[in-house]
Design goal:
Keywords: Membrane, Transmembrane, Transmembrane helix. The protein has 39 residues and is an all-alpha fold. Helix content is 95%, strand content 0%. It has one domain. It has 1 helix and no strands. The chain is rod-shaped.
C-alpha cells in the first residue's frame, strides 16, 4: 500500500508531462501550418 502511494505521484507527473507535450506538439504544428498558409 505504501509503495503504491509513493509511486502514484511519479505516474501522475509522467502522464501530465506526456499530455502537455502532445498538446504542445499539436498546437505548434497547427500554428506553423497556419503561418505557412498566410505566407
Amino acid at each position: 500500500m505504501r509503495k503504491v502511494f509513493i509511486f502514484t505521484p511519479f505516474l501522475y507527473i509522467y502522464f501530465v508531462k506526456k499530455i502537455t507535450l502532445s498538446i504542445a506538439t499539436v498546437l505548434c504544428y497547427s500554428y506553423i501550418r497556419c503561418n505557412y498558409q498566410k505566407m
